[in-house]
Give the backbone structure.
Amino acid sequence: MLIFNVKVQESPQLFFRLKTPIQNFMASAPGFPQGLWGKYEGEFKQTVLEAFSGQGGASGPWAHLSPEYAERKGKKYPGATILQADGQLLASFFGGGDYVYEPRALGMRWGSRNPLAGYHQRGHESPTRLPQRKMFDPDADFIGRLRSAAVRYVQAAYRAAGFRIAKETYGPAEYAGITRPEASALGRQSFLQSMGG
């Protein structure tokens, strides 16, 4: 299994200062028909798809198959790339019985229940030694896209609730008296905590 929990931290610094009308990040807002979590789900899927198609991610290319296994796999699954024998592992991040997408008001769970996903993501010491091949290996651009989506979602939700948001603001946090570096640090800290970092 490879499942991530993302949640909005209950942060008095941010939420009590904002006096936010947003109580549910699943709620739609202009440009976000499935709420913020729907946008995040798409970004998570895109990151996995890029890892599979590029055979690696931000931390580098995936380890090559051993010559013996590559030969056996080539005979049984001609043309299949690394982690793509029958397609079930990749498919488990996009739908079906192993797919996990559970949006909640202030958080979401996303990932795959396929046991191979966790083994490959972390690597596994065993008699045959399974090298680490990160299927979810985001880069700084991924974090930037999540941050940007969150800011745009909050701005859209505030506008829909009747608030005026100036175009030159970094985000609604500044209206609460939080500086740009503080807002950025809070966002990064919350993201890293939600990812278990």
Observations:
- The longest strand covers residues 2-7.
- The CA atoms of residues 98 and 113 lie 5 Å apart.
- The mean pLDDT is 82.
- Residues 2-194 form one domain.
